[in-house]
From TrEMBL:
InterPro entries tied to this protein: Homeodomain-like_sf, HTH_TetR, Tet_transcr_reg_TetR-rel_C_sf
Superkingdom: Bacteria
Gene3D superfamilies per record: Homeodomain-like, Tetracycline Repressor, domain 2
UniProt-recorded name of the protein: TetR family transcriptional regulator
Keyword Magnesium applies: no
A Pfam short name: TetR_N
Stretch list, region Disordered: 184-208
HTH tetR-type domain mapped to chain residues: 9-69
Keywords associated with the record: DNA-binding, Transcription, Transcription regulation
DNA-binding residues (ranges): 32-51
Signal sequence extent: none
């Protein structure tokens, strides 16, 4: 039976979603085309119908896909401290399949190279642009440098923390980076004033 155009697009989308999750969990070289195809109910032939360039084409497109949700989350952040605290969490540390692709895939991408590296580079550049809209700096170059420092710090902290078998040391790595970019004092004071003014009933209304 001939596959319709809509079904072909749906099949490709299914493979990309599966690959973006499984690559982060198992690595690009940790899962083959057969396993990926079976995970979404396709044959080898169905896979190559969507990705004639084979595994390199899939990996390249899947790596691009892994950045999308992270970029949107970062764009939603109101400040650098908010972004960093939202990134450096235990939940993110444990979430390989949906977490940031940089600590999950950087080593694999470095070994793979080619179009996969190109897709990864584009994703990193988009994250840098997102950070530049939040950081302070007198020039674009200053903002760019600060964005590089933040990106390397938070992704490096996740990468190292995941490799440790001491939870307390993992937490120290995350907290050390959080402490490097604390909230502005005036923001903290405003938050305290707001808490002090808010009626107790309002703050406790959700409690049983």
């Amino acid at each position: 039976m001939k596959v319709t155009k809509d079904q072909a697009a749906a099949n490709k989308e299914s493979i990309l979603k599966a690959a973006s999750r499984l690559y982060r969990e198992k690595g690009i070289s940790g899962i083959g085309i057969g396993e990926l195809s079976r995970s979404v109910g396709l044959t080898h032939g169905g896979f190559y119908g969507q990705f004639p360039g084979g595994k390199e084409q899939l990996a390249s497109e899947a790596v691009s896909r892994t950045f999308e949700s992270n970029i949107q989350d970062w764009r939603d952040a109101k400040s650098i401290p908010e972004l960093i605290k939202g990134y450096l969490t235990q939940a993110h540390l444990d979430n390989w399949t949906e977490g940031c692709p940089i600590p999950a895939l950087a080593a694999d991408v470095a070994r793979t190279g080619g179009t996969v590296s190109h897709s990864f580079t584009q994703g990193v550049e988009r994250l840098i642009e997102t950070l530049m809209a939040l950081v302070e700096g007198e020039t674009q170059d200053a903002k760019h440098q600060e964005s590089l420092r933040i990106l390397s710090s938070i992704t490096g902290a996740i990468l190292i923390a995941r490799a440790l078998d001491k939870p307390e040391l993992s937490e120290q790595f995350l907290q050390s980076v959080i402490n490097t970019w604390p909230a502005a004092p005036e923001n903290e004071e405003a938050a305290h004033e707001h808490d002090a003014e808010e009626p107790v009933q309002s703050r406790c209304q959700d409690r049983p």
